[in-house]
Amino acid sequence: MSGWSDLTRQFNPLLSQQNTTLERNHLHTNPTMKTQLARFTVRRSARSGFTMMEMMLVLAIIAILIGIGVVTMEGVVDDAEIQKAHADMNNIEMSLIRYKTNKRTLPTQGEGIEVLIQAGSALGGTALLKPEGIKDPWGNTYQYRNPGRKNVGSYDIYSVGKDGQEGTADDIWRK
């Protein structure tokens, strides 16, 4: 009968509506047909979605990828901060050279690099260094030593690094 009703539906929409009504009525009177249809519906719906195990596997893979990304980005951020510290120290060095050109001497260790902020206005111009130029990427003030211990006969400019402690492995010295 199903082959005939499919053929009828295909060629005559009016008969198709009547046959659908007849098939529905047949379902109500035939419990076996109803059970088979219910099994088919349950199996079909179980196959049409994702299982809990599949969802958990996908979430685990996403979590692993995010974890790898965070660890990788942490290294990139650390490298960028170190590069910024080197660039800042180069700017401080250029400001020290301009200061020495105008004053004929470098600032003393007691004056520090803070004098570079006020020096420009004392010389009738703009500051040789902006106030944020004396802070490293971690918020610590760059260190200035004159005479230098590392650069004997000159001066030292360095950052105490991420930990804020002088004399540790993460200190960054001008090149």
Short description:
The protein is built from 5 helices and 3 strands. It is mainly alpha-helical and 175 residues long. Strands 1-2-3 form a 3-stranded antiparallel β-sheet, covered by helices on one side.
Topology:
Elements: H1 2-11, H2 13-29, H3 31-48, H4 52-103, H5 115-122, E1 143-145, E2 156-159, E3 172-173
Explain what this protein looks like in three dimensions.
This protein has a three-stranded antiparallel β-sheet, covered by helices on one side. 60% of the residues lie in helices and 5% in strands. It has helices at 2-11, 13-29, 31-48, 52-103, 115-122; strands at 143-145, 156-159, 172-173. The relative contact order is 0.08. With 175 residues, the chain is mainly α.
Helix count? 5
- Strand order within the widest beta sheet: 1-2-3
Beta content? 5-15%
- The total count of strands amounts to 3
What gap, in angstroms, lies between the N and C termini?
A: 90 Å
- From the helix content, strand content and strand pairing, which structural class follows? mainly alpha
Give the SSE order as H and E letters: HHHHHEEE
Task: Report the radius of gyration as a whole number of Å.
Answer: 39 Å
Low-confidence stretches: none
The overall average pLDDT, rounded, is 77
Shape: rod-shaped
Percentage of residues in helical conformation: 55-70%
Largest sheet: 3 strands, antiparallel
